[in-house]
Write a structure and sequence with these properties.
The structure holds 2 protein chains of 2 kinds. By secondary structure, chain A is an alpha+beta fold. Chain A is built from 12 helices and 11 strands. Chain A has 3 domains: 111 residues, Butyryl-Coa Dehydrogenase, subunit A, domain 1 (Orthogonal Bundle); 99 residues, Butyryl-CoA Dehydrogenase, subunit A, domain 2; 146 residues, Butyryl-CoA Dehydrogenase, subunit A, domain 3 (Up-down Bundle). Chain A is globular. By secondary structure, chain B is α+β, with helices and mostly antiparallel strands. Classes of the chains: A alpha+beta, B alpha+beta.
C-alpha cells in the first residue's frame, strides 16, 4: 500500500497548540471579531504585536535570519486556533511571504527582509490573477527590462490578502517568458495601485493590485533558478495553512451548533434530541475528525517529497468538505435565527467559502490527487 | 507499562512473517468466508477452527493475554506485530470472534478468577466456540428491553425465550447471554443479568437463518426450560446491563484487550482502486470519468483518514477535546464507508454489475456484490449506524437523549 502520510507531533507543536488555544480564546471573542469586521484595518495592531512577541511570525524562519528555525508544521496549530476563533491578522500572509524567501529568495533578500518579518513587519504574496486560475504557474503579469538594472511590471493581481498593511508583496510574474517571483517593496506602489475588494469573508482584507507601471530593481527578483520550486512550495503552504484555519473553524462551528441544539426547545423538547438534527451533526463531527487527522499528517509530512503534496491536498480537500458541510448545516439548524446576520453560523460559512475559493477547492485537489494516486 | 525491546520485537515479527508465509493456505479448494458471520458450512467451520488453533499454538494469537490463562504474557506490541504478519500473508480470518474480541477481554476486565481459568484458553485454542445472545426478535436496538427470562431454581437458572442473529450459534459451546431475572423493576435495565451459558444442553435449540446473500451464517436460538448453572452468572443478579454495555465497547472496538488477529477481511479502497484500473466504460478506462475519479479519491482519503485517526488517538494532545470521540465513532465511520465502497465497486463493473456469485462472467467471481450485501451485517450488527450516531451525539457531543 502506498504511503500517504502519517501523524507525528513534535514537542514544539504541542507547546504552540497549548499557548495558541489559550491566546486566541482570550484575544478573539466573537464580539471582537464582529467589531473588527467593521474596522477598515481589520485586525487589532496590539494583538498583532503580541503575536510577534510570542515569536509566531518567525516560527518557520531559520535562526540565522531571526526566526526559531522550526517548520510550517509548527505554524499549523497556531493557524488552527486562529481559525477556531475567527481571528484575523496578516499571519498567514506574512508566513507565506517568508516561505517564498526561505525557499526561493536570494541571500541578500533573506538577510534584509526575513529578520523584519520575524519581528512582526507584515508582508504578503500575490499569486492569483484575473483569470482566477488556481494553478500556481499560470502567470500573465510581466516583469520587463527597463534598462539601468530596472524592471517595469505589468498586469493585475487579485485576492491579495492583507496588501493594505504589507510592507512587501511577493508577486508571481513572467520574466523572460518563465514564471518568476519578485519582491515589491511597499514604497514602489503608486497611489491607487491597491483597491480593496468586497469579499464574502468579512473578517478578511483582500485587495486587487494593479502592477502597471510599478518599477523595481532587478535585484528584487527572487532566485530565478528556484522560481518553479518556490511557486509550488507556496501553493502547497497556502493550502496547508488554509486547511488549518478551516479545521479550527469547523470545530468551533460544530461546538456553536451543538450549544444551540442543547438549549433551544421546540414541541417541549430540546431540539438536539431530534435525530433529524442530531445525526447530521454527528456526520459533521466525523468529517471534522477525519479532516483534522489529514491536517496533522500534512503538517508532519509537509517537507517529504511526493508524500507531502498528497497529504496537503488531502488535508485541504477534507477541510473543504468538513467546513462546508458543518457551516451549511449550522445555518440550517439555527432555524430563523440562522438566517440573520446576528447568528455566527454565517461567519463560519463565509470563511469556508473564502478558503475553498483560494488556492483550490476540494474537487480541484481531488483531481490533482487522482493524477498522483492512480 | 513494560518497555519493549525493539530488537526482540523485530525478531518476533520476522519469525511470525516466516511462519505465516509457510503456513497460510490461500485456496483450500472451497470459498472461505470473508467474515466470522458468514461461516455457513461444516467444511468452512472445521478449516477455520483448525487454522485458529494452529495460529494460537504457534504463539501468534493471545500473545498479550496473561500466561496464567493460556496467553503469551507479552506486550501488546508483539501481538500487533503478529497480526501485521498475518495480514501481510493474507491469512484466513480468526473464527472464534465473539470469544476473542468480546468475551475474552470482558473476562479479563471484569470476570472472576474461576471464569478466567475456565474459559480463556478454550477461547484462544478455538476448542470452545462462543456466541452472543443479546438481540431478540422483538428487541434489537432497544437491547435493554430484552424479555428472555432467567428464573433462579437452586443451583441453576431456568431460561425461557428466544435470541436472534446468533452468529456461530450452531457451533457454539457457550453463549454470553443477557436475560431478565426480574420483570418488575422500575427501570427495565435493572432487571437484567449476564450469563456465561452452555449451549449444548437440553432445552436449547438453534434454527438457521438465511441471510440476504442466500448463505447461512447465524441462527435463531430458542430456550425452553433450559437449565444453566448459576455459577455462570457474571457479576450480580440485576447487574447485567452494565456488563452488556462493557461487552459492546469491546465489540465496537471502543476498548482494547482483544486477543489479536482479525475476524473479517474487508475489501479496502486500494483493492477497489485496483478494480477501477481494470474496468472500462464506453471504451475508455472508467477512471477517465472525472466523476468516478473524484469518488475514488474520496474513498482513498477516507480510508487514509481512518488510519490516521487511529494514529492520532495515540497523541493525547491531539484528541484533548474529545478523548473518546474517535474510538466511539470508528464503528460508524468504518462500517458505513465499507458499505458505500462496495456499492461503488459494483458500479465500476458496469453492466456486469448485474451478475452475482456463481456466474462465470461476473467480475472477480461476484465478490463485490457479495461484499456489499454482507457489509450490512456491520452497519446493523453490534448496534445499527443510527444507534451509533446517537451514541456519538450523546456521549461525545453531549447532545440530549433521543
Amino acid at each position: 500500500m502506498q504511503d500517504l502520510g502519517r501523524i507525528g507531533f513534535s514537542e514544539d507543536q504541542a507547546a504552540l497548540l497549548d499557548v495558541a488555544t489559550d491566546f486566541c480564546l482570550q484575544r478573539s471573542p466573537v464580539s471582537t471579531v464582529r467589531r473588527l469586521m467593521e474596522d477598515e484595518l481589520g485586525h487589532d495592531p496590539g494583538v498583532w504585536k503580541e503575536m510577534g512577541e510570542l515569536g509566531w511570525l518567525g516560527i518557520a524562519i531559520p535562526e540565522d535570519f531571526g526566526g526559531s528555525g522550526l517548520s510550517l508544521a509548527e505554524v499549523v496549530p497556531v493557524v488552527e486556533q486562529m481559525g477556531r476563533r475567527l481571528m484575523i491578522g496578516p499571519l498567514i500572509s506574512t508566513t507565506l511571504a517568508a516561505q517564498a524567501l526561505v525557499v526561493g529568495g536570494t541571500e541578500a533578500q533573506k538577510r534584509n527582509v526575513l529578520p523584519r518579518l520575524a519581528e512582526g513587519v507584515a508582508a504578503t504574496v500575490a499569486l492569483a490573477e484575473a483569470d482566477f486560475d488556481w494553478e500556481p504557474d499560470t502567470v500573465s503579469c510581466q516583469a520587463l527590462e527597463a534598462g539601468d538594472g530596472k524592471l517595469v511590471l505589468r498586469g493585475q493581481k487579485v485576492l491579495v490578502c492583507d496588501a493594505g498593511v504589507a510592507q512587501w508583496i511577493i508577486a508571481s510574474v513572467l520574466y523572460r517568458n518563465a514564471p518568476a517571483l519578485v519582491l515589491i517593496p511597499r514604497s514602489a506602489l503608486p497611489e491607487g495601485a491597491l483597491r480593496r475588494e468586497t469579499v464574502i469573508d468579512e473578517t478578511r482584507r483582500s485587495f486587487a493590485l494593479n502592477l502597471d507601471g510599478v518599477s523595481v530593481s532587478k535585484e528584487d527578483l527572487l532566485d530565478l533558478d528556484l522560481a518553479a520550486t518556490a511557486l509550488n512550495h507556496l501553493h502547497l503552504a497556502a493550502n496547508l495553512l488554509g486547511a488549518a484555519d478551516m479545521i479550527g473553524g469547523t470545530q468551533a462551528c460544530i461546538d456553536y451548533t451543538v450549544d444551540y441544539l442543547k438549549t433551544r426547545t421546540q414541541f417541549g423538547k430540546l431540539i438536539g434530541s431530534y435525530q433529524a438534527l442530531k445525526h447530521p451533526t454527528v456526520d459533521a463531527y466525523c468529517k471534522y475528525e477525519q479532516a483534522r487527522s489529514h491536517l496533522y499528517a500534512a503538517a508532519h509530512c509537509f517537507g517529504e517529497q511526493g508524500v507531502g503534496e498528497i497529504a496537503v491536498r488531502m488535508a485541504k480537500a477534507a477541510a473543504d468538505g468538513a467546513y462546508s458541510f458543518a457551516s451549511d448545516r449550522a445555518i440550517q439548524f439555527h432555524g430563523g435565527f440562522g438566517f440573520t446576520y446576528d447568528c455566527d453560523a454565517q461567519l463560519y460559512r463565509r470563511r469556508a467559502i473564502w478558503h475553498a475559493a483560494n488556492y483550490g477547492d476540494a474537487s480541484f485537489h481531488k483531481a490533482k490527487l487522482a493524477k498522483l494516486l492512480f | 507499562m513494560q518497555t519493549v525491546d525493539q530488537k526482540d520485537l523485530a525478531a518476533f515479527e520476522a519469525d511470525a512473517d516466516a511462519w505465516f508465509k509457510e503456513n497460510v493456505v490461500r485456496d483450500p479448494g472451497f470459498m472461505l468466508p470473508l467474515t466470522f458471520m458468514e461461516v455457513g458450512t461444516d467444511q468452512q467451520f472445521h478449516f477455520l477452527r483448525d487454522w485458529q488453533n494452529k495460529v494460537y499454538d504457534a504463539g501468534y494469537l493471545g500473545a498479550a493475554w496473561p500466561k496464567a490463562y493460556g496467553g503469551g504474557g507479552l506486550h501488546q506490541d508483539f501481538q500487533n506485530a503478529a497480526t501485521r504478519a498475518m495480514r501481510r500473508h493474507h491469512g484466513p480470518i480468526m473464527l472464534n470472534a465473539i470469544g476473542l474480541n468480546w468475551t475474552g477481554p470482558l473476562l479479563l476486565d471484569m470476570g472472576s478468577e474461576t471464569h478466567k481459568m475456565a474459559h480463556l484458553k478454550g477461547i484462544l485454542s478455538a476448542e470452545d466456540i462462543w456466541c452472543q445472545g443479546f438481540s431478540e426478535p422483538g428487541n434489537g436496538s432497544d437491547l435493554g428491553d430484552a424479555q428472555t427470562r432467567a428464573v433462579r431454581d437452586g443451583d441453576h437458572y431456568v431460561i425461557n425465550g428466544s435470541k436472534i442473529w446468533t452468529t456461530l450459534g450452531r457451533y457454539a459451546k457457550y453463549m454470553i447471554l443477557l436475560a431478565r431475572t426480574d420483570a418488575n423493576t422500575p427501570k427495565k435495565y435493572d432487571g437484567l443479568s449476564f450469563f456465561l451459558a452452555p449451549m449444548k444442553i437440553p432445552g436449547v435449540e438453534t434454527n438457521p437463518i438465511r441471510k440476504l446473500t442466500g448463505e447461512h451464517g447465524f441462527t435463531q436460538t430458542f430456550f425452553t426450560d433450559a437449565r444453566i448453572p448459576a455459577t455462570g452468572l457474571m457479576g450480580v443478579e440485576g447487574g447485567g446491563w452494565k456488563v452488556a454495555m462493557r461487552t459492546l465497547e469491546f465489540e465496537r472496538g471502543a476498548r482494547g484487550g482483544q486477543a489479536g488477529g482479525y475476524v473479517a477481511v474487508g475489501s479496502n479502497a486500494f483493492d477497489v482502486l485496483d478494480l477501477a484500473k481494470r474496468m472500462t466504460r464506453s471504451g475508455k478506462p472508467v477512471l477517465d470519468d472525472p466523476a468516478v475519479a473524484d469518488q475514488m479519491v474520496d474513498f482513498l482519503m477516507e480510508i487514509q483518514a481512518m488510519s490516521l485517526n487511529g494514529q492520532r488517538t495515540q497523541v493525547p494532545n491531539l484528541v484533548a477535546d474529545h478523548p473518546q470521540g474517535i474510538p466511539l465513532a470508528s464503528k460508524l465511520m468504518g462500517t458505513e464507508m465499507s458499505r458505500r465502497l462496495n456499492a461503488f465497486a459494483i458500479r465500476l463493473t458496469g453492466a456486469r454489475g448485474a451478475y452475482y456469485v456463481g456466474e462465470s462472467e461476473a467480475v472477480d467471481q461476484g465478490i463485490w456484490a457479495r461484499a456489499y450485501l454482507n457489509a450490512f451485517s456491520a452497519t446493523i450488527g453490534g448496534g445499527t449506524s443510527q444507534i451509533q450516531a446517537n451514541i456519538v451525539g450523546e456521549h461525545v457531543l453531549g447532545l440530549p437523549k433521543s
